[in-house]
Structure formats: structure tokens, C-alpha cells
Design goal:
By secondary structure, this protein is of the alpha/beta class. It contains 17 helices and 12 strands.
Length: about 450
């Protein structure tokens, strides 16, 4: 049986979709699949010796060098992006590999034709190695996967909100990741350099201080708007969902204050998949985030937060699918409008349709099935990997990677059992075997239901 290793980044963004892909590959194509956490790819390659490795990107020099090593052993390299919407200027070139070496890549599965065409235009890969597949994780917004969605009352009970089917829920889906590193700028310098992100305007090294300052301002204004909304709309409930990479510990004081002042009306949620929250929300407030697009798939009103002139997360292409709030009065106006039965403007609905077709290829709930078929076809057309580990490679990789994996297990155990959080206050960023099994069980239950119905 052939083997595939899939590098899985964020648990709360990527895991469910990758488990779905894993189940399709294993059950329909008889391929053994392992999901591994970011940074553990070398260990699991040495341990499992897969025939194909699927990365979310190859920006970092370390990954590129290892990809070349994999090619020496006839291991296939596929890129399946976890983010591939180049909505802000310069990001398209980053996604298309302008600043990196894609030579080891056998197949790039792009979300849209724009990035695919740019890869070919830059000469990074020939056309036969680039396929447009759409956005696999958007399948969770379509049947049969929507069978897994919890109800509004279930979410309210779970997070201590007043159980009321008629209560309006405003979901804040935030992405203040840059503000989160105000006390650790060296991380941003290093991270953006590794990812080649510092070659894109707005992310250059000399711009980091301003980016942090303006992101903090955006975060402060957003938090202030939450407080004012809860005060101005007595029946409103607010769910605040920070990005997985945000500093969750920063919010501790705010959470305590709002829960005390507005009991059963405010929830700070980190351990939940975004579609579960979008489904029960009546309006979504965000800043040029993929979450906004996901809300469109449920037909939800979205509010683009552009609360000061130096807002960095803003794309005109994205914002046109939402109402735009430039200050708190705008936020209040739209909350009032939608809470009183207001409908999304026809012009916005029309624009969303155009946007989704342009940037997301096909939205039909079958993208993961398509990706699984492409991967299986690719794997079937090539021979198995041929690992021949030299003495030099053995001592170069094995002791170091096995030791690092042992230390990772120890670190994660201490964080979970003793400390409780990582340095950013996140309680559950890393996935484990039980998390994979949870989704395997849920996805299998959907299939069995379908079989019974048929």
C-alpha cells in the first residue's frame, strides 16, 4: 500500500478538511495517509518513508532543501495551499512562488486560476504541473458535511449564552496576529524572513513597527465596539472568535469584564471550528478575512471593519462583498438594520457570486473529492519511493529529528497537563490522535447515513 504524508498547519482551520481528504484517499483509493503537525515533517518522513509528501507551501529554504532530498528518493511533492486568495497587493507573487524555488514540486493544486496562471507566467512550474481545484475546506458549507453542524441553542448552551433562538448573534472573527507579537518583534523579523514575506510591500522589515502599531489600534477599536454594542443592544449576543495565531492571553481582562457586565451575552471562543459559529450567527464582523467569504457561503451579512485610515487588512476586492464600517456609528447602524429584518443588498449578493467564481473556482461541495481523485491518479502514475539512506544521511537526520520529536512530545505534555497554555495563551493549537479520530468518526457517520438513505 502506498503512503502519503500531509503536513497539517492549524488544528482549528485545517484539521477537519484534511481528515476528510484522508478518509477519501484511504477508503476509496486504498492509500495509507498520515497527518502530521507543522514542523514534524522530517521526523515522519524518516519514520514512515511515504511515497508522496503534501505541503501547504514551500516558502522556507529549510523545506526546499529537504524537498530536494526527497526527490532524490523518488518521493512526490504536492502543494495543497491552506491559504491561496491573493487579495492584498503583492501576495499573489508570494503564493505563486516568485521568491522561492518550486523546482522539486510535482503538482501544485491552486485554489484559483489567477495564482495558477501567475505560477506559469513566472516560469516557476510548467502548465502540466499546475491544477486549479478550488477550496477544499469550503466543502464543509455544503451537504452532506453540513449534517455535522450544531444548532443555535447547542452553541448558546456550550458557551454560556442565554438560550434564545430569537436572540441576534454577532460574530467577531478577528485576525490581530501582528498585534500579538508586539512584545516579540524578533519573531516577526525571523518569521517574515523565513517565509519571504518581507519581500512584499507592507511586510518589509522596516515596516514592522508601523504594522504592529496599527494592528494594535485596530484591535483596541474592535474591542471598544464590542463593549458599546452590548451596551446599546440589550438583546444582542456577541461571540468573539480570535485567529488561532493570536495572543489569546491578551484578552483575559476583557473576557472577565464583559462576562461580568453582560452575563450570558458574551462568549470568547477558541476551541471551535468556524463553520459551527458562522452557521448560528446573524452577522459576521471581520477584516478582509477568509472567514468573511465562508460566511457568504451561508448567505450571512458581513461587516468589513475599516475603523481607521491606516487599517492594514483591507482589500477592495474582498470588501465589496460586505457592508463597510468606518467607525462605531456604522457598526451600530448595520446591527440595527439587520436586527430589524434588513436584507443583504442585491448588489452585494451579485458581487459575491462574481467573486466566488473568480477567486474560488468551483463552489460545489465536491472539491475534496476532486483533490483526492487527482492525488490518487498522480500516485498511481508514478513508481514507489526508493529510499536509500546513506551513512551520512543517517547521522545527519535520524538522531537530530528523533530527539526533536521526543522533546516536542515532552513540551506539549507539559503545556497541556501542567501549564495549560502556550506562550500566547492558546490552550489547544496542536492536534493529536484523538482529534483525528474524532473527525474520522464524524465523517464516517455521515457516510453511513447516506448509505442508509440510498
Amino acid at each position: 500500500m502506498k503512503r502519503i504524508l500531509i503536513i497539517t498547519d492549524h488544528k482549528w482551520r485545517d484539521l477537519a478538511g484534511y481528515v476528510y481528504l484522508k478518509s477519501l484517499l484511504e477508503k476509496k483509493h486504498n492509500i495509507n495517509v498520515r497527518l502530521c503537525r507543522l514542523g514534524e515533517d522530517r521526523f515522519w518522513v524518516l519514520h514512515d518513508r511515504p511515497d508522496v509528501v503534501i505541503y501547504n507551501h514551500l516558502y522556507e529554504d529549510r523545506k526546499i532543501k529537504f524537498a530536494y532530498w526527497l526527490k532524490k528518493h523518488n518521493v512526490g511533492i504536492i502543494i495543497l495551499p491552506t491559504e491561496n486568495l491573493p487579495l492584498r497587493e503583492g501576495i499573489e507573487d508570494l503564493f505563486a512562488g516568485k521568491f522561492t524555488d518550486l523546482t522539486p514540486v510535482d503538482l501544485y493544486l491552486s485554489w484559483n486560476k489567477l495564482v495558477a496562471d501567475r505560477i506559469i507566467e513566472l516560469g516557476k512550474l510548467p502548465p502540466e504541473k499546475v491544477r486549479v481545484v478550488g477550496v477544499p475546506r469550503f466543502d464543509f458549507y455544503f451537504s452532506p458535511l453540513t449534517q455535522l453542524l450544531p444548532t443555535k441553542s447547542e452553541i448558546q448552551k456550550k458557551y454560556g449564552l442565554r438560550t434564545d433562538e430569537h436572540a441576534m448573534i454577532a460574530l467577531y472573527a478577528t485576525n490581530f496576529t501582528i498585534a500579538s507579537f508586539s512584545d516579540n518583534k524578533s519573531f516577526l523579523y525571523k518569521d517574515w524572513d523565513n517565509l519571504k514575506l518581507n519581500r512584499v510591500e507592507g511586510y518589509r522589515t522596516e515596516q514592522i513597527d508601523d504594522r504592529i502599531k496599527y494592528d494594535i489600534l485596530s484591535r483596541d477599536l474592535t474591542i471598544e465596539s464590542v463593549k458599546r454594542l452590548l451596551s446599546d443592544f440589550p438583546n444582542l449576543q456577541v461571540i468573539y472568535k480570535p485567529h488561532p495565531s493570536e495572543n489569546h492571553a491578551f484578552y483575559a481582562g476583557t473576557i472577565k469584564e464583559l462576562k461580568k457586565q453582560f452575563p450570558k451575552r458574551f462568549a470568547f471562543v477558541v476551541q471551535e471550528y468556524i463553520w459551527n459559529l458562522l452557521n448560528v450567527s446573524d452577522i459576521v464582523l471581520q477584516r478582509t478575512c477568509t472567514t468573511g467569504i465562508e460566511a457568504w457561503l451561508f448567505g450571512k451579512p458581513t461587516l468589513e471593519l475599516h475603523l481607521h485610515p491606516d487599517e492594514l487588512y483591507f482589500s477592495e476586492n474582498h470588501a465589496r462583498g460586505s457592508d463597510i464600517a468606518y467607525d462605531y456609528d456604522d457598526i451600530k447602524k448595520y446591527i440595527d438594520y439587520y436586527s430589524n429584518g434588513g436584507k443583504i443588498a442585491d448588489s452585494i449578493k451579485t458581487y459575491r457570486d462574481v467573486f466566488l467564481k473568480k477567486w474560488c473556482y468551483e463552489i460545489d461541495g465536491r472539491r475534496t473529492i476532486e483533490v483526492a481523485n487527482i492525488i490518487a491518479q498522480f500516485l498511481g502514475a508514478r513508481g514507489k519511493s526508493r529510499y536509500s539512506i546513506s551513512i551520512n544521511d543517517f547521522f545527519r537526520f535520524y538522531p537530530k529529528e528523533y530527539l526533536k520529536q521526543f522533546l516536542r512530545y515532552g513540551r506539549n505534555f507539559i503545556r497541556k497537563k501542567i501549564i495549560g497554555t502556550d506562550k500566547l495563551g492558546r490552550v489547544d493549537k496542536q492536534f493529536n490522535k484523538k482529534d483525528v479520530e474524532f473527525w474520522e468518526t464524524n465523517i464516517a457517520s455521515i457516510k453511513s447515513c447516506s448509505e442508509k438513505e440510498s
